[in-house]
Design goal:
By secondary structure, the protein is α/β, with parallel strands linked by helices. The chain contains 14 helices and nine strands. A hairpin with a 5-residue loop joins strand 4 and strand 5. The relative contact order is 0.13.
Length: 338
């Protein structure tokens, strides 16, 4: 399948960029984490694939991951020619029965009929965006201490040192939490909404990993567009065997042009490192409040009293220890011998 030209897919005129918001808080709030921006204008001088790749990298910046930014956008390239609910049901039953004709009674309704009737949240984008996501951390509670912790896989992960040692244990381990990959989460969101992905195209910022690729293939995605080369031989063979078309952006000049367009798009909206860092920090602090609960508030009087008590208690334990030694000495075997 070749990349369709932009004029055939969308006749909407490019929209001017929105005015730059005046305050940092306004610019941070203008774009939510893990939410696909709806104000990108497709450039008619680029192909649809290149435009969607620009949008994918724009979207990747809104990832909340501390490990690296990934994004996936699943698109129905020809939503007007999508199969009907009845035809889709027959196709799925045939696939499940290894090519045998359908044996189950056709349902009166299916999720695809309701999803096709729902309004398109991105009407200015060619085709129809079915689902989208970034790689999303799945944080959990952590021990309220700075000591080493044992992860879900049983591996002891040492506490952070240096600059991050001043953070809370939750925020210090932000990069160690498990993550749901962008491709897997996109498919989950589509399944939850009852949106079929059969025959869809998935735009991914990098080649899908060996865990996500089988999910995309099993979900019926027939076309993958991503940057760089898919190196895993098993992944290449899987796509070839299942008839999945792989479009790789390998030209260095094209890749640099795509990244430059992404940078200009964010710059037009006043987005810089401060905005991105502030948005990310606020998301993680909100997750900490949601998972760990609100922080304890200690008054100044209580804090000073605790400090004074700690100062007085520095001598008391030693005296108590001596008394305990004396008691042990009078009741032990040596004392009874006397």
């Amino acid at each position: 399948m070749t990349d369709p030209t932009l004029p055939c897919a969308s006749s909407a005129a490019p929209r001017p960029p929105p005015p730059v918001l005046s305050t940092l808080d306004e610019r941070v709030a203008a774009y939510s984490c893990n939410t696909l921006p709806a104000d990108y204008s497709f450039d008619p001088t680029l192909s649809i694939d290149d435009n969607y790749m620009v949008l994918t990298l724009i979207y990747a910046r809104l990832s909340t991951s501390k490990r690296g930014n990934m994004a996936c956008i699943i698109v129905d390239p020809c939503s007007t020619r999508a199969p009907s609910a009845a035809a889709l049901h027959d196709i799925l039953i045939t696939a499940l029965n290894d090519g045998e004709p359908p044996v189950k009674r056709r349902r009166a309704s299916s999720p695809s009929s309701s999803s096709s009737a729902s309004p398109d949240p991105f009407p200015n984008y060619p085709g129809r965006v079915l689902a989208h996501s970034n790689n999303t951390p799945e944080p959990h509670t952590v021990p309220p201490s700075s000591s080493d912790a044992v992860g879900l896989d049983g591996v002891v992960k040492p506490a952070r040192t240096g600059k991050k040692a001043q953070q809370s244990p939750f925020l210090a381990r932000a990069s160690n939490f498990p993550e749901l990959h962008a491709e897997a989460r996109s498919l989950c969101l589509a399944a939850r909404a009852g949106i079929p992905t059969l025959g869809a195209t998935a735009y991914v910022s990098f080649p899908p990993c060996q865990a996500c690729l089988p999910l995309l293939v099993a979900a019926g995605v027939t076309r993958l567009v991503y940057r760089q080369r898919m190196a895993a031989q098993g992944a290449v063979e899987l796509c070839r065997r299942e008839g999945v078309e792989c479009v790789e952006v390998l030209d260095k000049d094209k890749d640099e042009d795509i990244k430059a367009r992404v940078g200009r798009w964010w710059k037009e909206r006043g987005e810089g490192r401060d905005e991105t860092r502030t948005r990310l920090d606020r998301w993680w602090k909100e997750q900490e409040r949601r998972i760990m609960g609100p922080p304890e508030v200690v008054s100044v009087d209580c804090a000073s009293g605790a400090a004074a008590g700690a100062g007085q208690g520095s001598v008391a334990p030693r005296e108590g220890a001596k008394q305990e030694e004396a008691v042990v000495g009078t009741t032990g075997p040596a004392a009874s011998a006397k």
